[in-house]
Amino acid sequence: MSGAERETLTWDLFGTASRELAEQIADSGYRPDIILSVARGGLFVAGALGYALSVKNLHVMNVEFYTGVGERLPLPVMLPPVPNVVDLSGATVLVADDVADTGATLKLVRDFCGEHVADVRCAVVYEKPQSEVRCEYVWRHTPLWINFPWSTLPPVVQAEVLDA
């Protein structure tokens, strides 16, 4: 995919995207009690939406799926700590992520919330055509690989690989 055309999101454009996404949510009348961020890319989206929608109750769910560009695990895996369902019980929840690519991660998170919350909806900056989850709030649709400002440059510190 290195030579393929890509969608590029800059920090400035992310500011526009997150504000317009928040306006979509507000205009729909949806008022979340909790914003549930899908780490890591969803952390940026959740923070921006939290400020724009005046929601201070932010939670994080860490789900591992992608291991590299176009490389992923067979299924998404929830990593600890998993949010306590008591904290979500009866709440109106907005799940925030950067992209709905296959939709598998969002489906896992939405299904996790489904039995415990009053209502759950999803907000993403980008949604791809192959996503199995159709998000209620989407800034843009694209079939392309996306260069996000938080993950385009290589890490300053390389992650340690643990021996099995």
From TrEMBL:
Residues 13-152 form the Phosphoribosyltransferase domain. It holds the Pfam family Pribosyltran. InterPro entries: PRTase-like, PRTase_dom. Signal peptide: none annotated. The keyword Ligase does not apply. One of its GO terms (molecular function) is glycosyltransferase activity. CDD domains: PRTases_typeI (cd06223). SUPFAM superfamilies: PRTase-like. Keywords: Glycosyltransferase, Transferase. This is Phosphoribosyltransferase. It comes from Pseudonocardia halophobica. The lineage of its organism: Bacteria, Bacillati, Actinomycetota, Actinomycetes, Pseudonocardiales.
